[in-house]
Amino acid sequence: MNAIADPRALPDAVERAIACVLAAERAARDDIRRAESDAAASIERARGDARAIAQRVERRLRRVRMTFEARANEEVARLDAAAVEVAQRHELTRTDLDHVDAAIATLAARLTSPV
């Protein structure tokens, strides 16, 4: 028999329809809560991954800075040592003077000879 034709069946059909809608609503709310929970967990994992990456980057940058500073300090020390050596008075040996005299003679010959 048709629910419209039987007035007694109408309240049962309405009750079932309302129960069905309420059940669907509950299921939808549960799905939303699960999705929110999953999203929150996913966000927290992403934040953890980002923190781990940031820590690795910081460690790498610290190593690069330390390496750079060590190399720069070595180069400065080398330049300081060279400056000290250059600043010292050097006595020329007989061989040094002979080299200078030979260089002067070669230069003079080139300057005074015809091209």
Task: Summarize, please.
The protein is 85% helix and 0% strand.
How would you characterize the overall build of this protein?
The chain is mainly α. Helix content is 85%, strand content 0%. It has two helices and no strands. The chain has helices at residues 9-87, 94-112. The longest helix is centred in the middle third of the chain and has 79 residues, at 9-87. The model has no long low-confidence stretch (mean pLDDT 92).
Topology of helices and strands:
Layout: H1 9-87, H2 94-112
Head-to-tail CA distance between termini: 129 Å
Question: Over the alpha carbons, how many angstroms does the gyration radius reach?
Answer: 46 Å
Strand fraction: under 5%
Strand count, sense and closure of the main sheet?
A: none
* Helicity range: over 70%
Structural category is: mainly alpha
User: How would the global form be characterised?
Assistant: rod-shaped
Tally the helices: what do you get? 2
- Number of E-type strands: 0
